[in-house]
Amino acid sequence: MEMLRFATAGSVDDGKSTLIGRLLLDSKQIFEDQLESVERTSREKGFDYTNLALLTDGLRAEREQGITIDVAYRYFATPSRKFIIADTPGHVQYTRNMVTGASTADLALILVDARHGVVEQSRRHSVIASLLSVRHLVLCVNKMDLVDYDQLVFDRISEDFREWAGKLDITDLTFIPVSALHGDNITSHSPNMPWYDGPTLLHHLEHLYIGSDRNLIDSRFPVQYVIRPMSDKFHDYRGYAGQVAGGTFRPGDEVLVLPSGLTTTIEGIDLYGESIDAAIPPMSVTLRLADNIDISRGDMICRPNNAPETTQEVDAMICWFSERPLQVGGKYAIKHTTKSARALVRDLHYRMDVNTLSRDETSGTLAMNDMGRVSLRVTAPLFVDEYRRNRTTGSFILIDEGTNETVGAGMIIDA
């Protein structure tokens, strides 16, 4: 069964957590004791309704303040599809959390309060989704019950957002009017909005086609671990374990190993101890090769006539996570696929204002939650693709070696 990962985003109090709670409740994913607990907590807090946001806002501070602070992941399934939901915060100061939640998403679900329309955070999160190459975006105009289910309100907000989205790299845009509190157009069509003839939210999520989103052309296999059992039974076994990052691998394929540049063929592919005929993203498998080649963690297995760029110079868009600002000349550990090295920030070309898309080329630093374009010099060769082509081989994180804190996440523009 195919899996869809999606992230919710939007401004504070637009109803992201409530929407997820409603989706889980109406699709019969909530246990009775969970619902009873939420109902009891809602009464204790003085609500005259069941506050479904409590299903996802699990931190004490989140419940006290009525906001989402950290990314909350929820898993559910219908007969048609499995889902992983990332409920991301709406506050500006938690932009880095939104980046984390959306970095692996197939779809971004942006909520807008029907009373307020498209606001700064709506634009900010759509820009981030675009930068992170989230190809599918759904704008849910929420709280339609508070504007009397007025079609003109929905049409005006949709047109406003469509005009903004025209500046971004978004290939698939869908608009759905909903009321998360009352369940309108979540899993079934609302009798309150007979003018809307599009899909319900759940129907759209179940039937969205994402097969063409994965890169099945550029074969990429970063080696995670060398498997060499020392028992007599498996004395001759040597396999290379990892997660397929692109393309398709089959027994008999000729492959190139980087950085050595040696070629060999795939003798077999193992999954859970069984041989399989093909491996595609994002399967985690073990490749067995015909020749004994010196291969270790961080090496890349690809096709001879379609290799990633081998480089120590990288240009990237970066989102800065740390309270200590990025400085030109700063040195950090870099983690790219399964390879680790050290990186020097050679240049900061500009800081991007994600609200207006303007570029500040005079900025000499990036503060927490800022995004900008940087040039890095790396101590060891990396095997990279542009992020738009491959989100795995085109991304990296920067780590402060003193504190082991992840300070930045990067998307490679050019090598």
Q: What does the model show?
A:
This protein has helices at 16-26, 32-44, 60-65, 95-102, 120-131, 151-165, 201-207; strands spanning 3-10, 72-77, 82-87, 107-113, 136-142, 172-177, 220-222, 225-227, 239-243, 254-258, 262-271, 274-276, 284-289, 300-302, 309-320, 326-327, 331-336, 339-353, 358-360, 365-366, 371-384, 395-399, 406-414. It is an alpha+beta fold and 415 residues long. The chain folds into three domains: 3-211, Rossmann fold (3-Layer(aba) Sandwich); 220-302, Translation factors (Elongation Factor Tu (Ef-tu), domain 3, Beta Barrel), CATH 2.40.30; 309-414, Beta Barrel (Elongation Factor Tu (Ef-tu), domain 3). Strand 5, helix 6 (151-165) and strand 6 (172-177) form a beta-alpha-beta unit. The chain is globular. 40% of the residues are buried.
Report the biggest beta sheet as strand number plus sense, adding barrel if it closes: 8 strands, antiparallel
Q: Count of helical segments?
A: 7
Class computed from helices, strands and strand pairing? alpha+beta
CATH-defined architecture of the largest domain: 3-Layer(aba) Sandwich
> Please, what is the average pLDDT?
86
What is the 3D form? globular
Strand content: 35-45%
Q: Low-confidence parts, pLDDT < 50 over ≥5 residues? A: 59-69
Distance between the termini: 36 Å
Would you list the SSEs in sequence order as H and E? EHHHEEHEHEHEHEEEEEEEEEEEEEEEEE
Q: How many individual β-strands?
A: 23
- The level of helicity is 10-25%
Q: What would you give as the CATH superfamily of the largest domain?
A: P-loop containing nucleotide triphosphate hydrolases
Give the C-alpha Rg.
Answer: 23 Å
Number of domains: 3
The CATH class of the largest domain: Alpha Beta
Would you tell me which CATH topology of the largest domain applies? Rossmann fold
